[in-house]
Amino acid sequence: VWSCCGCFCIFHLVCIQKWAKDSLFLVSSPLTDDDFGKKDYPWPCPKCRFEYKRSETPSRYYCYCGKVENPAVDPWLVPHSCGQICEREFKPSCGHKCLLLCHPGPCPPCPKMVTTTCHCKKAKAVPRRCSAKEWSCRLPCGRTLLCGQHVCENPCHAGDCQPCPRVSKQRCICGRQTAERLCASPQWQCDQVCGKCLPCGNHTCEQVCHAGPCGDCPRSGKRSCPCGKTKFTLPCTEDVPTCGDSCDKVLECGIHKCSQRCHRGPCEICRQEVEKQCRCGKHTKRMPCHKPYLCETKCTKIRDCQKHQCRRKCCSGNCPPCDQVCGRTLGCRNHKCPSGCHRGSCNPCPETVDVKCNCGKTVIKVPCGRERTIKPPKCKQLCSRPPTCHHPTQEKHYCHFGRCPPCRQPCQKTLTCGHLCPVSCHDEALVKQTGSHQSAGPWEQASEPVFIQTALPCPPCEVPIPVECLGQHEVSPLPCHSANPYSCKRFCGRLLDCQNHTCMKECHRVTKSSSSADGKKAGPECSQCEEECTKPRPAGCPHRCVLPCHPGDCPSCLQMLKIKCHCKLSVLYIECLKLTRADVKEKELLISCRNQCPKELPCGHRCKEICHSGSCPLNCSQKVKLRCLCKRLKKEVQCSKIQEGQVSLECDALCKEMKRKAYEIKEAEAKAALEEEKRRQQAELEAFENRLKGRRKNKRRKDEVEVEQSSWQKYKNFIMLPVFGVAVVMV
């Protein structure tokens, strides 16, 4: 709903939205061409005509105080109220807020108590309600009036004092005339011109009765020519001449300028011929600029009623509202609309019609036309029709149209099991009729289902009876009509003869015997165990039990295990029983092949231990030769000491002398090779120069260049042989 701020009348939200939309459309219909689309028209309240702006059209549902949007329904609160404190400011505003719960209608007067004095401030302050804090002491006001001569004689009042009612003789502003006037308006003007001589000495003041000095002569100082382009400094006795230039003032048409020379007085009307377009925009014509142009074409637009044409000559498009009578049939289908031709739906019919209940004792009045759609009134009289079922009396219900509602009393007929039927009466049940009509083809539309009223038999008895399942696992309450032994769908769960597994059949009947009196052992109907023995084997035994599933312990395992030794070179066959019962040391001996370990130590020698598990020991006892850096000296030591860095062999003085001599021989060879390369390059250069001189043009022969051997090449054999001989002897 929505509540008006002026009259606090409550309307449905959709209704007020439609009202605002229709009001804005009707009010904003253009009455003249100039006003169309230029004004934001308001819309009024349907009851008090309080005006709202277009932007104030309600679009959301709020509570009365406006705090909560879409307030929840609470049966303990006023409908459409949020239940919070109102807190709206009182009107007129006094600074306090309403303390009632969110409520419809205006807020009550402010109940606060304040201490206040009267309007004239003469009486003593007294406590009063805030809503009635302004009061009068009824004594004369006594405030000085605006005239400054008299005081207010009215009793104590609010606001400003009234104008002074007395009459007195008062002079005008210029002081020439005296007249009797109201004391409230002491200043007044007479009709005489001032006429005082201005400072120029040539002219007089032309102002009507005024106060203060007259001012300078209006013709003194610089004055402009009539067109305003040229300024002159002339005595006030001489008139300003025209400048002789063109006037150039904008004419009344607002487009062209005056083409005459500078002149006094107003400019003439615009006589320039222009191409003008008529108001409707369909025709153009050359004519004087100052004349309006209206064609004879009639407007063919549809007016706001959307039925009739405008038919106005040279219409600009803002057609006036339609002035014909509507005459359309109203929503009641009984009367016609008497309003003027309008757009949209017509107003509802004002007539009313009586609508009665079935017995005719309750009557309501509804608007004309609503009697066909409105529900009949709710009658408070009881229905007097006789029952149609097997019960002696029917349930009490109010007056209604049509059939009586189905009987909701318990059936209470005796069933075959002896119990009473507890369901509602089913003597007149509505049953859907099937197979009564077959369609001629797929083109025929399916008809609505047909229901017939018939008596149904009593349903099966649903009284719960405790019943035990076949396997005696549980006791469940079953309906009386199906209270028979049943399978609970669980596994049987009885212990089989193997004493290891239970029966996996679905819950079934078991024949009881003297041996299975406890109800936990399997019977002849249970399944037989056909699985292998799944008992845990000794640690390390990979074989299964050779017997099927059996009670008691499994026999010892006598199978042979095929196992590789520690060094992975030999294959051993050992009894599973011996291996599983042996301790760590015995297992170490059983898996060993008794041969030397083939693994290679980090030093490169073979392990000296017998086949063993884990990594080999690092103390290698193999004897190896240790040499110095020049490989001349050697010594036999244990391999493990060399790996640990405990033993080393250094070069002696003779080794160092041999290194020095070898270095000198190598340096001499490098120097001789460098000289040999230089001589070879020199010989090649000379041969190339001889070929370029052209001394032998006819005969070609090879240049023989004798290369002299160096001293190193001549005597190297004599030097190297003794050196190598000494080295061999030392080795």
Automatic annotation (TrEMBL):
Gene Ontology CC terms: nucleus
Signal peptide: 1-20
InterPro entries: NFX1_fam, Znf_NFX1
Ranges for domain NF-X1-type: 94-112, 147-166, 200-219, 253-272, 280-301, 305-324, 332-351, 389-409, 498-531, 541-559, 603-622
Keywords: Coiled coil, Metal-binding, Repeat, Signal, Zinc, Zinc-finger
Pfam families, per database record: zf-NF-X1 (PF01422)
GO molecular function, one term: zinc ion binding
Signal as UniProt keyword: yes
Domain of life: Eukaryota
Coiled-coil blocks: 651-698
Family: Belongs to the NFX1 family.
Name of the featured protein: NFXL1 protein
Annotated source species: Nesospiza acunhae
